[in-house]
Design a protein that fits this description.
By secondary structure, this protein is α/β, with parallel strands linked by helices. It is built from eleven helices and nine strands. Pfam families: OTCace, OTCace_N.
Amino acid sequence: MTHLLTLAGLARGDIEAMLALAEATPAPLLAGKGAALYFEKPSARTRNSMELAVHQLGGHPVYLTPGELGIGTRESVEDIARTLACYHGVICARVFDHGLLEQLASASPVPVVNMLSGTDHPLQGLADLLTIRQLCGRIEGVKVAYVGDGDNNVARSLAQGCAALGAELTIVAPEGYQLSDAPAGVRQTTDLAAVAGADIVYSDVFVSMGQDAETERRMADLGAYQVNEALMAKAPDAWFLHCLPARRGEEVTAGVIDGPRSAVWRQAENRMHSARGALMWLLQQD
């Protein structure tokens, strides 16, 4: 059984196939089947994009919460996986602990998809790659500058995807915020001058969900890495991307995210298309 828990280790051809399917005519691969969508964390883009992607493939999405399943308390992870597979053609989960996804995948007879975990966000990474290709006409050789907190699930999946498809990613972050397990070929620096000449400038929030207790420290450490008009002037032809939600005035100014070189809404829409492409690819492997 093929699962999608991370972009790490995927062959270039597999990622390219998912991106191609994202722009292909949807096939009714889930006709008459359900799709279990398990959420430990709330999300606007993930729930909407996945429910619509499942619908476009002819399936019926079922939204599930921890209180309904009682994973690991009322019932074992393995029993939950096997039970859900009786009804659904795919199990998708947005969780805190990546290990839970691995447990589900080890027991599930249907594909398991990571809708976000503490370490990886592969569906966001696919949407980012799809958006980069649409904006630049290619992925290989595109210069991407990721600015801010570079040691999170979004940056990790972006790095894995860029490394696999040949984009030139530079993570521009202060010490202590650089990607701890960056793939070969990914450059890391503290110097904001590295943004110069970028085709894509990417940012994410400085304080993610569950990090509220660290707000004061993180804002102090990352404040100089705000993407503003002065920083974008170093790469005047660059497009701005952000995984959203954004906090205007913190990691990015309103003038940048709402400006003419921002492609964040195309990127958000591509969450649906890339999710559909990933599901099609997985279901075709099955």
